[in-house]
Amino acid sequence: MTTTQMPTTEPLVDDRTRRVITRVFRLVEDVIFVGLGVLLAGCALYLLGAAGVSFVQGLAGRSFDGRAVVELIEQLLLILLVVEILYTVQVSFREHTLAPEPFLLIGLIAGVRRVLVITAELAEKRNQVEETFRFLMIELGVLTFLIVALVASVMMLRMRPSSGGSASRG
Predict the structure, then answer these.
(1) Where are the domains of the chain?
(2) Secondary structure of the chain in HEC code, one letter for each residue
């Protein structure tokens, strides 16, 4: 039995160069994550201030009706969405990994926010064309299925045995 041996080739990049390149990429990644974090934190603070001003103006003007409450809740859910994205950036910066749970929570918040918008639209436009009503009902059904699937996914992730470097908040 004869075996042909493959000729050994030298790697294009030696180990030292590979480590330097890896360090440079990690540094660039860290700078990007810090920049994203600063921008997201600024956005969250701005949105929180705007929601607070809107709330105080609504109370002072006594024009805080059902629509205003829905709009305020929608703003608060947007803030929660931005904060959840900020948390995802923080975990990615700290651990240099992508954890699935924050992304599921972001999807869950976005789904609930859209359901809130649709229900507000339905309440506002009672005399809609039947086709528009049917479209919104189908969208609500799909969103409901999506929300249930996301909640089930988060629950399954939380029930699994955690590995050494868990990214849970606690």
Answers:
(1) 24-98, 99-159
(2) CCCCCCCCCCCCCCHHHHHHHHHHHHHHHHHHHHHHHHHHHHHHHHHHHHHHHHHHHHHHCCCCCHHHHHHHHHHHHHHHHHHHHHHHHHHHHHHCCCCHHHHHHHHHHHHHHHHHHHHHHHHHCCCCCHHHHHHHHHHHHHHHHHHHHHHHHHHHHHHCCCCCCCCCCC
Q: How many CB atoms lie within 10 A of CB 131?
A: 8
pLDDT one digit per residue (tens) for the chain, 170 residues: 556 666 666 667 788 888 999 899 989 988 998 999 999 999 999 999 999 998 898 888 877 777 778 888 889 989 998 998 898 888 888 887 777 888 898 899 999 988 988 887 777 766 667 778 888 889 999 999 999 999 999 999 889 886 644 445 54
Angle between helices 66-95 and 15-60 (to 10 degrees): 160
98's tokens: 């992508």
Spatial distance between the Cα atoms of 58 and 53, rounded to a whole number of angstroms: 8
